[in-house]
Amino acid sequence: MYTPPVFKPDRAASLAFAEARGFGMACAWDGAKPIASALPFYLSYADDGTPRALFHVARHNPLVKLAGGASWLLAVNGADAYVSADWYVSLDQVPTWLYQAVHLTGPVRTLSDDDLAVQIDTLSAKFENRLAPKKPWTSGKMTAARLEAMKKAIVGFEMTVEEVEGSFKLNQHKSETDYAAVTGNLAAQVDAGPQEIALLMRQARPDVFANQTDELERNVP
């Protein structure tokens, strides 16, 4: 991943983003072309702190045959938004795109049936917990025969994450005036993506907006 230093988050922030997002694109090379599938995942950590990404795919997915070979890429994207050059206060600006993305890379192994059962429950619990106060769904609600049939239809994987790359491109390098102007215009858009980017920008440089508040207070009669 190409990431200018000003946009590069540290390793901990990149992993936290990936875990919070929990959905990405698993990509592998079959010797002739790339193979990719969008899928949910969760992270766990080995005793030595090495991150591990766990996920599963349908048994007939071409990725199944590629486990144990070359490293895979798990690309995790967050919100994104287009920025018009007209939104800047400064002259001679160009349009750009703001976004958050993290790439996890490493070898992948196939899980045993017992490990797959744990993965299914852990993965569903991760996302069911976000639906509180709804009572979480669990695999225990299924009949044993149906659960076993569903398990046979999928293959579980564990990626040992050897490389973590991130890019949080939020206009960090722009002046306070331009940064505030772009944030305001993004916040005014109707789509969720620009609004989320605007919120992230406020969180990334709160001093910019504190200065705005101070200026407003000084001008109040």
Write a compact overview of the structure shown:
34% of the residues lie in helices and 30% in strands.
How would you describe this structure to a colleague?
With about 220 residues, this protein is an alpha+beta fold. Helix content is about 35%, strand content about 30%. β1 and β2 form a beta hairpin. α4 runs antiparallel to α5. The longest helix is centred in the middle third of the chain and has 16 residues. It starts with 10 loop residues before the first helix and ends with a helix.
What's the shape?
A: elongated
Gyration radius, rounded? 22 Å
Instruction: State the helicity in percent bands.
Output: 25-40%
The portion of residues forming beta strands comes to 25-35%
Distance between the termini: 51 Å
Quote the average pLDDT.
Answer: 94
Key features of this structure:
alpha+beta; 6 helices; 34% helix; 221 residues; five-stranded antiparallel β-sheet; four-stranded antiparallel β-sheet
Task: Walk me through the topology.
Elements: H1 11-21, E1 23-29, E2 34-40, E3 42-45, E4 51-58, E5 72-83, E6 96-106, E7 108-110, H2 113-128, H3 144-152, E8 154-160, E9 163-169, H4 176-187, H5 192-204, H6 206-219
Antiparallel strand pairs: 1-2, 1-5, 3-4, 4-8, 5-6, 6-9, 7-8
Helix pairs in contact: 4-5
